Amino acid sequence: MRKSLENNKMFRLKDLDILGSKAELASLPEGKLLINTINAHSYNTARKDKLFAEALTNGDVLIPDGVSIVKACRWIKAKSQPKERIAGWDLFSFEMDKLERESEELRTKSEESNSMTSSKDGQEDSSLFTLRSSLKKVMFMGSSQRVLDLIVKRAAEVYPHLKVVTYSPPYKPEFSDEDNKAIIDAINAADPDLLWIGMTAPKQEKWTYSHWDELNIHCHVGTIGAVFDFFAGTVERAPMWWQRHGLEWLYRLLKEPKRMWRRYIIGNTLFLWNMLKEKC
Questions:
Q1: CA distance 40 to 145
Q2: How many C-alpha atoms does 204 have within 13 Å on its Cβ side?
């Protein structure tokens, strides 16, 4: 999976393999798959962070989580020409809906089978255990316990056929070896059918990429930090009009100017400058 970059200047938008549309999410292969997102902010960050650049370059799937990425790819005539923005929320909704349908189908089949078995043998306890074990499992790793508890509560309403497992890592800039081992052990013990990593960029991408070979799992893994808060309801996502017009960034800037001004005003200017250099 690893493809080392000699220096950060080798990280160029025009060379990246980026997913083209939301419809292509349905064509992603089953099994262990690392799915990252890229937007103007993460591009700028990767230009200064070698490990982050490698994580985005070497992941299995990279989705364009920003209208700026879609438009820039057209302008600089990049190798990839995504047709539309695919937000982290779009990835989350697609994967969760798909797993919910699969789990519901499995449970229906299990109920039919257990109904026949229990009527013959009277083994109701065994049947209930089989029903519970037939549920597909999704794991959320990251964020605070408060947010994770809200996720569990909402998931029970929106995705009633999924079993939700969570893990809240220590809140610190860097994890110790013991921290990393505990996280890896928790993920491997859960053996989920879908794994979400939410520790904000670039920490989540770098951690997942660095420990990828230690994760003995068989599922899709998405690094989607902000979606944890959106789903939990602790952060409000921009209304649909702003999303449709590619202005979700402006909505966030207006809502949180003190926290977001550097990212969007300075960051967007830097992104435009970098795109000009790539085009030339």
A1: 30
A2: 26
Distance from C-alpha of 247 to C-alpha of 222, rounded to nearest angstrom: 24
Rg, C-alpha atoms of the chain: 21
CB 73 within 8 A of CB 81: yes
267-279 vs 67-75: helix axis angle to the nearest 10? 20
Selection from 44, 87, 37, 11 nearest residue 263 by Cα: 44
ω before 202 within 30° of 0 (cis)? yes
Tokens 């993460």: give the residue.
42
User: Helix, strand, coil % (nearest 5) of the chain?
Assistant: 60, 10, 30
pTM of the model: 0.91
pLDDT tier at 128, thresholds 50, 70, 90: very low
Give tens-digit pLDDT for 163-189. 999 999 999 989 999 999 999 999 999
Per the CB < 8 A criterion, the answer to whether 137 and 165 are in contact is yes
- DSSP conformational letter for 30: S
**Beta-sheet pairing, 33-38 with 162-167:** unpaired
H/E element holding 70? helix 67-75
Q: pLDDT tens digits, residue range 75-98?
A: 999 999 999 999 999 999 999 999
